[in-house]
Amino acid sequence: MDIRYKLFLSKIFVINPHERYDIYQLINLYNGLFPNLINNYVPLNYNYLSYSNNELMKLNNYINERIFDVNLENLNFGNLLISKLEDLNDTDYVTIWYLNYQFCHSDVDYILKDFIYIFNSYYKKIFNKVDIHNNCFNILYLVDFNLF
Fold first, then answer.
1. Can you list the positions of beta strands (E) in 10-91?
2. Residue 92: which of 52, 62, 119 has the closest Cα?
3. Does one domain contain both 69 and 136?
4. Which one, 18, 42, 63, 120, has the greatest CB density within 10 A?
5. What is the pTM for the complete model shown?
6. What is the tens place of the pLDDT at every residue in 70-120?
7. Is 50 exposed, middle or buried (0-12, 13-18, 19+ CB in 10 A)?
8. 56 lies in which domain range?
9. Residues with Cβ < 8 Å from 26, sequence gap 6 or more?
10. How many independent structural domains does the chain possess?
11. Within-domain flag for 114
12. What are 32-52's pLDDT values in tens digits?
């Protein structure tokens, strides 16, 4: 076997994930070893993981203070949705938080009606469960998210 292949494979099959090459390091190594190049692909919204929407975070903290077993530490899905939308309103933030809860919480014990009073309290207005429910589908449609 060619030494280049052994070197490349040795960087892939490292057990310790902290020592293992990530995809970008592997692409750079491959490009240095072999004549045909692989282009680095950087997604358009690559930084959404480090992006944290302040309004979504404040709403999440408010909910966590009131329902102690709903602790969303990962708002990445919600931040991804926000990064793809424009001109968000209160209903959108509530909807995005709820979608994040539904898709990312390990044990979904609550349904939308359980959160309505908290949403109402936080925004000091009355939210309609049907409006939030319909907005879930609207937001997923706007970001081209396919449930089926």
1. none
2. 119
3. yes
4. 63
5. 0.65
6. 878 889 889 989 988 999 999 999 999 999 999 887 677 889 999 999 999
7. exposed
8. 46-142
9. 8, 11, 12
10. 2
11. yes
12. 888 887 776 555 444 544 567
